[in-house]
Amino acid sequence: MLNDTLTEALNEQMNYEFYSAHVYLAIAGYCAAESLDGFSNFFKVQAEEEKFHAMKIFKFINDRGKKVSFDGMNTPVNQYESILDAFEHAYLHEQEVTKRIYHLSDLALNDREHATMQFLKWFIDEQVEEEAMFDSIINKLKRIDKDSNAFYMLDAEFAQRSFTPPAAE
Question: 159: which of 29, 34, 92, 108 lies 20 to 30 Å off by Cα?
Fold first, then answer.
C-alpha cells in the first residue's frame, strides 16, 4: 500500500513530468522562431512523451486507490544561445528527471513497496534511453556546423519524428 510520503512523491513526479512537457514546448518555440522546424518537431514530440509519462503516473496513483494532486509550475527557459545550448539544457533536465526517479525508487525500496518498485523500473529504463539520446545528439551537434549540410539533414530527420505511445504492458 502506498503511504502518504510515497504518494506525495509520486504526485510531485507526475507534476514534474508535466513541467518537462512545458520545458520541451518552450524549446520547440525557440526552434520554431529560429526557422528550425525539424528541431521544433523533435521537442514537440518530446513534450508528448513527457505528457505520456505524467499520465502513466496519474493512472498508477489512481490504480493504487490514492488521489492525484496538481501543483503550479515554474516558467521554463524560453531563449537559448544556440540549438546546442537548447539540447544541453534538455540533457541537464533529463539528468534531473533521472535523479528524481532514483529518489522515488529509493522511497519505494525503503517501504518495500514492490508494486511501485516494479512500476518505476519502466521509468528507470526510459531515463537510460533519454539521456543516451540527448548525449548522442549533443555530440553530433558539436561535430557539425550550423551552416553545414549535416545540420540541415539533422533538422530534416527530426521533422520525421513522431510519438506512438508504447503498447500497454
Answer: 92
Those residues whose C-beta lies under 8 Å from the C-beta of residue 97, and which sit 6 or more positions away, are 16, 17, 20, 127, 130
Q: How far apart are CA 102 and CA 85, in angstroms?
A: 26
Q: Whose grid coordinates read 553545414?
A: 148
Q: Which cell numbers hold the place of 58?
A: 496519474
Q: Which residue has the cell 509550475?
A: 73
Residue ranges of the chain with pLDDT lower than 50?
none
Angle formed at CA 68 by CA 46 and CA 55, multiple of 5 degrees: 25
Residues in the chain: 169
CA angle (120, 41, 142) in 5-degree steps: 85
In 3D space, the residue among 9, 43, 14 whose CA is nearest the CA of residue 130 turns out to be 43
